[in-house]
Hints:
Layout: E1 3-7, E2 10-12, E3 18-25, E4 34-39, E5 45-51, E6 58-60, E7 68-73, E8 78-83, E9 92-98, E10 107-111
Amino acid sequence: xxxxxxxxxxxxxxxxxxxxxxxxxxxxxxxxxxxWVRQAxxxxxxWVSHINWNGDITYYAxxxxxxxxISRDNAKNxxxxxxxxxxxxxxxxxxxxxxxxxxxxxxxxxxxx
Length: 113
């Protein structure tokens, strides 16, 4: 059974940092590119970032460039998202997904003073 489980969300003040993790199982992790996608309250899904199978190639949505860093540890079957300089508009549920269409349940990130 394919499983993706996000963790690391929480409440953080503007300007703060969080590191999200996505632990995976049930598929060959390093066969897949991985994504982070988020959904802000009352809004649609917004793609955040992508990383290729071995981490050599990464892409970011424009508003995340320079603040977010996607990475992966294939030995641990885990995806990460380091988020710095967080803003209130980064408040959302953050999901990880593999390029095969499987998603996790999401982790809530709230940026507020």
